[in-house]
Every structure is written in structure tokens, then in C-alpha cells.
Write a structure and sequence with these properties.
Blueprint lengths: L2 E2 L3 E6 L3 H11 L6 E4 L8 H4 L4 H4 L9 E2 L12 E2 L21 H11 L6 H9 L2 E3 L13 E3 L7 H12 L15 E4 L4 E2 L2 E2 L2 H9 L5 E4 L2 E10 L5 E10 L2 E13 L2 H11 L2 E2 L1 H6 L6 E2 L11 E8 L6 H4 L3 H14 L11 E5 L10 E6 L15 E8 L7 E3 L10 E3 L6 H18 L10 E4 L7 H11 E3 L28 E2 L1 E3 L14 H17 L2
Parallel strand pairs: 1-14, 2-3, 2-14, 3-11, 6-7, 13-25, 14-26, 15-16
Antiparallel strand pairs: 4-5, 8-18, 9-10, 12-13, 13-14, 17-20, 17-23, 17-24, 18-19, 19-20, 21-22
Helix pairs in contact: 1-7, 1-14, 5-14, 12-13
Cofactor: FAD
Organism: Tistrella bauzanensis
Pfam families: GMC_oxred_C, GMC_oxred_N
């Protein structure tokens, strides 16, 4: 028998980046009873909080759903690890900590797609600033005093400084701020850290709110399905959720609405197993169609990074520094005493935004440059000194899908990103490797004698470089778009511009899946901005 709990006003599914902020903002109203549900556990694992601990969180079932993609034709049949946070804080507990808003042009495009001025850059900027605590203080683009701490990184490397100088010689402007609307340039990334510790959404937004008596948080609780009932006019209404908690099936009811914030993978999966999604897919799995919505799980976009590796001489990289016990002990001692050095590192330290070719009218590729190299994420460092200049297409035209593999909510979904499936994406991949070579061939790097190890200088044609990109590229963990917003006359739009599920009542989706197109950079902070706007609309009843 399924037990039913007393009703809440709002139920939030997923205590990740968006869910933590929503729980904070909505429970600030003492008359609103809020339930926050998280499938993972508490964020009390030490490696969540030590910045380099992402190495021990990704691929760890304690903190990661440990998803894998289907074999990808564009990656020459390879299967990729597809990390998604499974703990309080969600992906903000295991991600790269890079603070990046995207470009003003991203939000102009959202405004055009949704038909709403609310999504233009000038309208979203105040919502970025609403929770920001920038190390430089406030100005026209930044704010201080909010919950979301933004700091400089606490390290530097000679090889990275030289790479930045080489990028300037190649025509990129130097910058100290990628977050003013036009991020073209080269400089060190700013990060979501506080005094050398990771600053995740759970610490920033959830912990301060958990003292409120009107906020209930359930961890290690997985949503089995959404509860839906037809209104008198035939429209479906979401009235709550059915969950498995401590081995028991339970129902939690919502007087006002349910907000899905389970991420671009989790939210469409929950909708589909609940009978909300493409009718054909649901019928194949014997699921009753509660609401035929073709766009649920479609429009998957992600940033694919092409990991070019260059051997170097005459300088020390992390490959050598971490190659023995003495070096590792030195790294550990530096972090213990000063919270600096390699243990305070974000996965990527130096960044650059530029154009893959002269025909582009804005920066369309992003570099993540690291003083290390390895065959794949989680594998041992190489035995030689090297740096990696990973480059990704910021605005891919390839589109993938998230779809259930069975009606069982516990089964991982089928993840098919469909990378490099368009001619445009393959051309940008080839051109971006040429940009990498142009930068690495500048005078500023000469003293380190950079030698292209991957993909290899013998590959030069578009066809060769695109194929090699498929051999060495990997996801940078930015899935978006699978429950996208759009206009009322857009048959593939899942949400209206206020995150409400089209053709239903009582259900919103507030996470990166709502993005109509991927932002030009790391996606964590745009997701916070979206949650900030959603909270304001929910509290206002719109």
C-alpha cells in the first residue's frame, strides 16, 4: 500500500543547482510549505569540497549517476562517460567550478525563440547579479554580498602564462572578465570557490534555508512517477509525486505545483515514465499516454571538447609534479597550509574564446587549457611533461535525444548526444584544431618546444581532422535543451517562457533542459539565473 504524506504547497524534484536555489527562494515565504526531493545523499563527502576532488566524485556512485552514452557514430563508435550529480548540490558538487554566464547574443536568441523580452541579456543580467558575491565587488556587470561566491583561482603555471601570451600574439585580446556579455579573449577563469574550497549550491543556498520549519528535505529518495489527474476541461494537472524512500512507496501531494529540477537527463526521464512525452515512445514501452508532448527528451545539445595534447620541454607540468610520492606530498602540504596549488585547481585553469574562422561574427569556440595531459578523464597522467588545449564548439548544430529504455524509473535512460552529426559541426571541429595549432606555433611558446602529440601534425584536411576529432573528443558535461522553452505555436516546445509545461497545469521544469539553445560557455551559472527568474515568477503566481 502506498502511503500519502500531508500536502505541500510546492514540491521540487532534484536538489541540484536549480533546486537548491528554488528551495531557498520559495521557502523564504513562511506561508509556503516546500518539499525538496533528492535521489542522492548529503554532500558530506570530503572530496566534494576539495576542488580537485572532482576526480574522486565523477564515476563514483556516491555522487554521480554514472550514466554512459550510446555508441556515437560521430565519435567513431565510442561510448562516453556522462556524469550527472547525485548528491545535494547536484552537478555543482562535482563540476569544474568555472563561473561563466555565456554571451549577450545567447540571450538575444532565447528572446527571439521564446518571443519574450524577459530573456534578453539586459533582462537576465539582474538575475545573475541577484545572488552573486564577486571578489572585485559590485559594478555595472557584477554584484557583491550574494550567496554565490566568485573568486580568482589560487595558482598559476608558467606554461599557462606562455599559452596566454601566445594567444595574444595570435590576435586574441587579454581579459580578466569573461562575464560582461562578450567573452572573446584569453585569461584565467574565475571559479565558484571560497577560500580554496568548492562553493556548491547546497552550501550557498540550501544550508541557510534548512533551518526554516516550512522547508522539508528528503535525501536518498527517488521519484518513481509524477501523479497526474485530468481537470474538468480535460487538461492534465500534476498533483504530486510518487517516490521510493527508505524502501517504501510514498506519495507526496502538491497544493500548487511540482517543479522538476532533475536536470537535462533526469527531468525528461521522469516525465516520460510518467506518461508525458512522445506518444510513440511511450506506447513502445507500454506506458499510458497522459500528455503527448513530442519535444520531451529531444533537442539535446552539449559541448564536445577536442583534447589536443602538446609535449613540452624546459618547464614543469602537473604530469611530472604529481609523478611521485614526494611531489604528491608537496601538493598536499601546500593545500593543507595555504589552500593553494594543484589541489585547489579547477579542472581547467586558463580559458580563451575566439572565432574558428574569419566568417564567424562572434566568438564561437572556447578553450580550456590545462598544465597536464592524459588519455581520458580519470586515467593516469602521462609520463612526459605536456599541456592540453581542449577546444569546444560553443554553438553546435547537432541535436541528440534522451529517451527511456524501459518503463522502470530505476533504469538509466538512453543518452544519444549525436555529436558531430552535421557538416557545420565537423567543419568547426577541423577549423578549431587549426586555431589551436596557430596559437601553439607563436613565439611566446617557442622556449618550451611544443610538439603536437594529439591529434598529430600529419593530419591536415577537413576530413582527417574531423575524423581525428571523433577519436579524441569527449563531453565537457554541459547537456541542455531536452525540455526547451518556446513560443505557443512551436509544436516542439515543451515549456512556455515561464517554465510551465505546455498543455498541463501544476508542472514546471526549471533546469538546464529548459534552455532553447546552449549558452556560449559553461552552463552552471546560467542555470542558477534561470532558477532565480523562475522563483520570482512562482512567488508572483505567474
Amino acid at each position: 500500500m502506498t502511503r500519502t504524506t500531508p500536502a505541500f504547497d510546492t514540491i521540487i524534484v532534484g536538489a541540484g543547482t536549480a533546486g537548491c536555489l528554488l528551495a531557498n527562494r520559495l521557502s523564504a515565504d513562511p506561508n509556503r510549505r516546500v518539499l525538496l526531493i533528492e535521489a542522492g545523499g548529503k554532500d558530506d563527502y570530503i572530496w566534494i569540497h576539495v576542488p580537485v576532488g572532482y576526480l574522486y566524485c565523477i564515476g563514483n556512485p556516491r555522487t554521480d549517476w554514472c550514466f554512459m552514452t550510446e555508441p556515437e557514430p560521430g565519435l567513431n563508435g565510442r561510448v562516453l562517460r556522462y556524469p550527472r550529480g547525485k548528491t545535494l548540490g547536484g552537478c555543482s558538487s562535482i563540476n569544474g567550478m568555472i563561473y561563466m554566464r555565456g554571451q549577450a547574443r545567447d540571450y538575444r536568441q532565447w528572446s527571439e525563440i521564446t518571443g519574450e523580452d524577459d530573456w534578453d541579456w539586459d533582462q537576465v543580467l539582474p538575475f545573475f547579479k541577484r545572488h552573486e558575491d564577486h571578489h572585485k565587488g559590485g559594478d555595472d556587470a557584477h554584484a557583491a554580498g550574494g550567496e554565490w561566491r566568485v573568486e580568482r583561482q589560487r595558482l598559476r603555471w608558467d606554461i599557462l602564462d606562455a599559452w596566454a601570451a601566445a594567444a595574444e600574439q595570435a590576435g586574441l585580446p587579454a581579459t580578466t572578465d569573461f562575464n560582461r556579455g562578450d567573452n572573446e579573449g584569453v585569461g584565467y577563469f574565475e571559479v565558484n570557490q571560497k577560500n580554496g574550497w568548492r562553493w556548491n549550491a547546497a552550501k550557498a543556498f540550501l544550508r541557510p534555508a534548512m533551518v526554516r520549519p516550512n522547508l522539508t528535505v528528503w535525501t536518498k529518495t527517488q521519484v518513481a512517477r509524477l501523479i497526474t489527474t485530468p481537470d474538468d476541461d480535460g487538461l492534465m494537472r500534476c498533483t504530486g509525486v510518487e517516490v521510493v524512500r527508505n524502501g517504501e512507496r510514498m506519495q507526496a501531494l502538491a497544493r500548487q505545483e511540482v517543479v522538476l529540477s532533475a536536470g537535462a537527463v533526469g527531468s525528461p526521464q521522469i516525465m516520460q515514465v510518467s506518461g508525458i512525452g512522445p506518444a510513440g515512445l511511450l506506447a513502445r514501452h507500454g506506458i499510458e499516454v497522459r500528455h503527448d508532448l513530442p519535444g520531451v527528451g529531444a533537442n539535446l545539445q552539449d559541448h564536445l571538447q577536442i583534447r589536443a595534447v602538446y609535449k613540452v620541454k624546459g618547464t614543469r607540468t602537473l604530469n611530472r609534479l604529481a609523478s611521485n610520492l614526494v611531489g604528491k606530498a608537496t601538493i598536499g602540504l601546500e593545500y593543507a597550509l595555504r589552500r593553494t596549488g594543484p589541489m585547489s585547481m579547477a579542472p581547467s585553469q586558463l580559458g580563451a574564446f575566439t572565432r574558428s574562422s574569419a566568417e564567424k561574427n562572434a566568438a564561437n569556440i572556447q578553450f580550456h587549457v590545462q598544465p597536464l595531459s592524459l588519455d581520458a578523464f580519470g586515467e593516469p597522467l602521462h609520463s612526459f611533461d605536456a599541456f592540453t588545449a581542449s577546444v569546444c564548439n560553443l554553438n553546435p548544430t547537432s541535436r541528440g535525444t534522451i529517451s527511456i529504455r524501459s518503463p522502470n524509473f530505476e533504469d538509466a535512460p538512453l543518452i544519444a548526444p549525436n555529436y558531430l552529426s552535421t557538416e557545420e559541426d565537423r567543419k568547426v571541429a577541423a577549423d578549431s584544431l587549426r586555431v589551436t595549432r596557430r596559437i601553439c606555433g607563436q613565439k611566446a611558446l617557442e622556449k618550451f618546444q611544443p610538439e603536437e602529440w594529439k591529434p598529430g601534425p600529419q593530419y591536415e584536411t577537413d576530413e582527417q581532422l574531423a575524423k581525428l576529432a571523433g577519436d579524441i573528443a569527449s563531453t565537457i558535461f554541459h547537456p541542455v535543451g531536452t525540455t526547451r522553452m518556446g513560443r505557443a505555436d512551436d509544436p516542439d516546445a515543451v515549456l512556455d517562457p515561464h517554465f510551465r509545461v505546455r498543455g498541463m497545469r501544476g508542472l514546471r521544469v526549471v533546469d538546464a533542459g529548459a534552455m532553447p539553445t546552449i549558452t556560449s560557455g559553461n552552463t552552471n551559472s546560467p542555470t542558477l539565473m534561470m532558477a532565480e527568474k523562475a522563483a520570482a515568477w512562482i512567488l508572483a503566481g505567474v
